[in-house]
Structures are given as structure tokens and as C-alpha cells.
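At your convenience, could you comment on the folded chain following this short note?
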Amino acid sequence: MQMISSRAVGFIDAQSLTSGEAREALFRDGDGFLLYLRNGEQAPVAEERVLRLGLREALIWLNEPAQEQGSFWE
């Protein structure tokens, strides 16, 4: 497995109005691409997800403009 790219996505929590930073990383394995998502919370309430992406979705993630980063959380 190879990491292609990673980034931090800043956000403001709607309830507490505090700023946070989510992490995203795109990996490539023998079957395609994996997108790892982790919200900005500390353990044990941290939420992590792994999504399988096709080539098109991986390219969309890589080329997202700054204002649209974090769109894969929805």
C-alpha cells in the first residue's frame, strides 16, 4: 500500500464554535484507492472512516479546490 497524498481540513464545530482540523489521506493498493478520513476529535470520540474509491473519485479528491475539501465526509 502506498500513500498518494494527505491533507488537513480545517472546520468550525457547529455546537461549540471551536475550530478543529480533520485529516484525510489517499492510499493506493492492488485493488484501487482507499480514502482514510479522521475527524478532529480526540479519542475515544474520534470518528474514523475508510472508503474504497475508484480512479475517477480519487482524481476528484486530489483536485478538489480548497473551499470544497472535506466533501467526502457527507
User: Anything to note?
Assistant: Strands lie at 2-12, 19-29, 32-38, 48-53. Residues 2-68 form one domain.
